[in-house]
UniProtKB/TrEMBL annotation:
This is LysR substrate-binding domain-containing protein. Residues 1-60 form the HTH lysR-type domain. It comes from Halomonas saccharevitans. It comes from the Bacteria. Pfam families: HTH_1, LysR_substrate. Belongs to the LysR transcriptional regulatory family. The lineage of its organism: Bacteria, Pseudomonadati, Pseudomonadota, Gammaproteobacteria, Oceanospirillales. PANTHER family: HTH-TYPE TRANSCRIPTIONAL REGULATOR CYNR, TRANSCRIPTIONAL DUAL REGULATOR HCAR-RELATED. Coiled coil: none annotated.
Amino acid sequence: MSLSHAQLRAFHAVAVHGSFTRAAERLCLSQPAVSDQVRKLEERFGVSLLRRSRRSMELTDVGERLLGITQRLFAAADEAEALLAGARDLQSGKLTLAVDSPMHVRRFIARFQARYPGVRFQLMTGNTDEALSRLFEHRADFAVLGRTVEDPRLLTVELSRAPLIAFVPADHAWARWRSIRLADLARAPLVLRERGSMTRQALEAELRAAGLALTPAIEAEGREAVFELVAAGLGVGIVSAAEAGHHPGMHRLAIEDSGHCMIETLVCLRQQSERRLVAGFLEVVREALAEPEG
């Protein structure tokens, strides 16, 4: 009983994108066509892959296991495509980067695109745990992590080291100061990233070590949301100095007794590192890091 590539592709798209509509858009097919392909796959093997309702869709146990297989299958197909594209001296292709913030990789992307203008980039944003998950699930070629990960499956390149800093709007009482201490943060309302954020974990660890506790905080998903809430006067923000960027109206504050250093690391799967696109990007990154910063 042979498998249909089209049926597997349709199932994979639905499972990854969470709906028949989005899957149809990505496959450039009609929604009924995608639905028909999945239905035929289920009927052919007498299994149920999806639980459908008016408002939601979820994978069955068999569907979850099949998704794990199709992720590897289509990652291999993408690898084959990348190999063939590499034979054309990187004139085309796509690199997907799972990042916490684009600012960690933008200079490397700019340098790579200047050399290989035909290669496209896709950036997927999320915290360190999400980025690592996307890499292992073959949904990203690279991940940028806010912590060091010891894993023999990974090839790693350290991008930067930077201390934690606080930031407040220009009309905040602290805007007259150059620095604060951890005890000041413990008494202030904070605007923090979600729990998977390495910045938040680092701050919480430092406060615990100093015998201090957090003041009840606003939790926001994503760095830009934190900046918006801080700008609105709803609390004090914490960020790595390397991620502070340029935000008009914000005042930065050193944290005098903070000893933590945020390390940003670029990683890829070691087994993927010889792919022409991946190897080319690694080469550009290493070149840029070897040069003195201007």
